[in-house]
Amino acid sequence: MICEISFMSSYEIRGKKRLEGEYVLQRAKNSALAVMCASVLVKGGTLIKDCPDISDVDNLSAILTRIGAVVRRTGDGLYVNTDGVYSSYLPEDLCEKLRASLFLAGPLVARFKAASFAYPGGCSIGARPIDIHLDGFSKLGAEVGKNEKRVNVFASSTIGAKIKLRYPSVGATLNVMCCAVTAKGETVVENAAAEPEVKDVADYLSLCGAKIKGAGTSVLIIDGVEKLYGGKSFTPVPDRIECGSVLLAVLATGGEVAVRGANPANICNLLQKLRDNACKLHINNDIISIITNGRAKGFEKVVTAPYPAFPTDLHPQLAACAATAAGRTEITETVFDSRFNYARQLKRFGADVTVNPNGVTINGTDLTGANVKAEDLRGGMALCIAAMAAEGVSTVEGVSHIARGYASFKEKFNALGASIAEIDP
What are the residue numbers of the active site? Predict the structure, then answer.
């Protein structure tokens, strides 16, 4: 793996630089990670084409390698072969670094009829209970035990069932789907997550021989098969969160940028909010061009919710843009209960941000360079947007969080005209 950024590194960002040029999107982080996990189900290798060079992929690669998989970078992607996986026990030291390690549970239960994993890590953005995942395993015939440190799942066999998720959790939908594709009989999953990344994994599994209907809707129908076969290449969907992050950064700083490799249909909610703002959008197949026209306007009221509503993973970035805008923005967060760590950091720039029990209220104003610290992935991106829009020089610490989800962040934004330098402590 070649994603290299020091855990202690910081970015020095000189603000008020107009962004211009072309930005090429990476493939979706959450899709690539989930496909890597799902590959445990298939016999033979998988080439994930254009797999993003981010530290989350590196961390998941380390977990897979630890339990016997072969993972290596190639000229056009990431090759994963899980034929040699010998253990369904996931190590604590690696799981605690990566929330997506939980996505291995379903494939491991399907393959080994057992999985033992530590509670996963990732971003500190509030409660993310795993009981929905465990309920799904139980419905498919597994027994679940847990203690303070680990969860253990065992199944003498997995049998299709009718499962209604109490919340359309992406991770739970992925785990249930992966566990059900080789279960005996039919599984119906109601209130399933409809995110493009879930459909992507279903498409990958179908390519390998799974029988899945309804992917991309709230109801999945899965007919179990005996085996899945690899030897396939798969290209994940474009990263809609990266796309939205770039568009919001341009709106905040001013500029004219063509975002190439996008899927506009997957970010309709954001695009409508941008059309109502101080910019023009031109969409030509996979290219979204944004041309700003003066200072951004407040977004009024925004509510995060599962797809196709406004994505929670763009909440902090939109808040950063709103902090520089003319007018008021109210963001109601319905997915995570503590996604507000970025707010106190934005205040260091002089932002007028008030945290409410389930959201934030922002009155746009001029921002001034500040020293801030990223505490999670999307919050870190938000701070970089604020720094690029602020007057003067800012230092953003904790940029290893940003490397978890944005490949070549510094290089790609500098190519647009930003002034970002990596500095060591």
Answer: 123
Q: What is the mean pLDDT of the chain?
A: 94
Place of tokens 């701070």: 383
Contact 275, 302 (CB under 8 A): no
Exposure string for 305-325, b = 16+ CB within 10 A, e = fewer: ebbeebbbbbbbbbbbbbbbb
Check if the beta carbon of residue 63 is closer than 8 Å to that of residue 94. yes
Q: Which residues share a beta bridge with 397?
A: 10, 373
- Whole-number pLDDT of residue 3: 52
**CA-based Rg of the chain, rounded to a whole angstrom?**
21
Global pTM value? 0.95
- The CATH number corresponding to 29-234 among 3.65.10.10, 3.40.710.10, 3.40.980.10, 3.40.50.1360 equals 3.65.10.10
Q: What is the CATH number of domain 10-26+238-423?
A: 3.65.10.10
Residue 259: CB atoms within 10 A of its CB come to 23
How far, in Å, CA of 369 to CA of 329, rounded? 22
pLDDT per position as a tens digit, 363-418: 999 999 999 999 999 999 999 999 999 999 999 999 999 999 999 999 999 999 99
Measured distance CA(60)–CA(104) in Å, rounded = 10
